[in-house]
Amino acid sequence: MLTVVDDCTRGMPGTGRRYIPSGPRVARELDRIIEERGKPMMIVSDNGSEFSSNPILQWTDRTKEEWQNAFIEKLRKRQAGAVQAV
Hints:
Blueprint: H1 23-37, E1 43-44, H2 54-63, E2 67-68, H3 70-85
């Protein structure tokens, strides 16, 4: 189950929803929550496979969402280094 907690209000806009095991489903659920509640200042996640997948990396690039996840930040640094090396 995906649990989403708003740190400011302590509300849980994503709790109680269906089981969301994959990156694409997480991205769709985040789109739904943002549509209903507005864009957050930042998203913080653990390093679960659904949060460190290519669909989530593409979602953060598309939405320009600030996301704290050690895996994604490490991957972006690697990609930036690869681009600079070319």
